[in-house]
Amino acid sequence: MLRLFLLLLAARHIVKAACPNFCSGHGACGPDNKCTCDSDWAVAPDCSQRKCPSGVAWSDKASATNTAHALAECSNRGICDSSKGVCNCFTGFTVRCPNDCSGHGLCYSLARLALEYGPDTLPGVGGDGVGPVYSNWEKDSMSSCFCDMGYGGADCSIQLCPKNDDPLTTGQGFRTIKITIAEATAAAFLGNALHVKTTKAANTDFNMIYAEANSVMVFKVDGSGKVTAANGITITTSGLLVSAGGITVTQGGATITAGGLVVAAAGATITTAGALATDTAVTAEATAAAFLGNALHVKTTKAANTDFNMIYAEANSVMVFKTTKAANTDFNMIYAEANSVMVFKVDGSGKVTAANGITVTTGGLVVTAGGLTVTAGGITIAGGGLRVEDTGLTVVAGVMQLRPVTYEWRQDVCPQRNFPNGTFAGFIADEVEELLPHLILVDGDGWKSLDYPKLTPYIIRSIQELRAEVNETTKEGRTQITELSQELMTHKIRERNLEASLVAHAQEIDELKAQVEALRRAIDQLSAMLVHQE
């Protein structure tokens, strides 16, 4: 009876497990030998085929007016491999940009491009750094390369040449926005009749307000807040309050009919006109007999910098002396001309240029940093010879700081330069110019190049100096090795002495142990004798 029950039970399980291919491992076998497939495998009755991803169809039949591009397997641009559930996409529909943007850009969808780089002008949120939301059907289906600066083309493989405004095109102006406003007539009006706002920081290269009469500027407020009026400014009440910057009158002078001139802060600018040719334009005079101060003292609370002037002098409207900006080579502290020819100048970094040499009558010439560079004519020493007291004479300063690079010329990028195709080794002219400016050549178009033949002697001298340094370092190293070897020998001798001392002490310990043992036996004998006597 038990055997019959087991056979019936086995037969029952055989009937339940008779689903096709046992549901291929992707489903459950149910009644009537029917598979209930997992959600991604409900394609074939035996659950052996997997669904492919669905996306917005590139082309399909419209279901209603203006209703199309429904979800479709592989977006109707590929063949589904149901054994793996993977789409074999048609060429150009692989969700990748051409050549992966050649390593010079980012592959973005249209939706991402709109957010990242679309016009940031939506009402109410303009200027928040986020572009418009692009919601058309292809927003996530189409992608494009957003190339790095200096590269272009569909796959960012084209390296662009430098570009700028064409000097041959004239009569072009900046973009102008014209605003028409209504009059604010409310009795309790507390707002702004006109509010002009930009996201750009204050600067003088644009205008906030610009008024013209018959194409002639009559009034403007530039981006820094400076007001320019073509026919003067009349103040009927409250006077003129200047809280910073002072007042500068460039023409017509200033006439004060009452109250005199009181300068409470910010100082005063004094201009003299009509003086004789031999007169001194401005004299700063200290009349006190015990005067110990400065006849002229220029002082600022701002730290030293090249962006302002401590002193500014002009001759015939030409700047000849300036110290308001921090140290830099893009301006001159002193500039002297004779018949329109520069004879002497001190630029903003302190560099002195003299057209006819410099004569030092006393004190000598001391160079504390930067060394001495002679680009032509050499050095002639008439007396006293040449003496180098401290760091030596180096004629190759800067060579060891040069950075060799490998670059690729491409004739198709800038054909007008006739560059040869290929990869070459060399240096970057701008970097060399900072260290060895006299080795740089500049052509008529402003292109810089390195005069490699002139660089060769500097490199050879650098190698010689390095060789000398290596020899000196080797000599010092050998001396140190000898000293260390002698010290090591001394330590070894001391070690042997300590080992001998340890052996001697061990023998003494053994002798002491023998003596202690002898004393113990003697004590035992005495103890036995005492016991026997008792």
UniProtKB/TrEMBL annotation:
Chain segments annotated as coiled-coil in the UniProt record: 495-529
Entry-linked PROSITE patterns: ICA
Domain Peptidase S74 residues, every copy: 340-477
Keyword Coiled coil included in the entry's annotation: yes
Keyword line: Coiled coil, Disulfide bond, Signal
Residues of the signal peptide: 1-17
Domain of life where this protein originates: Eukaryota
Entry keyword annotation includes Ubl conjugation: no
InterPro entries, sorted: Dev_Signal_Modulators, S74_ICA
Gene3D superfamilies: Galactose-binding domain-like (2.60.120.260)
Name of the protein: Peptidase S74 domain-containing protein
Taxonomic source organism: Pythium insidiosum (Pythiosis disease agent)
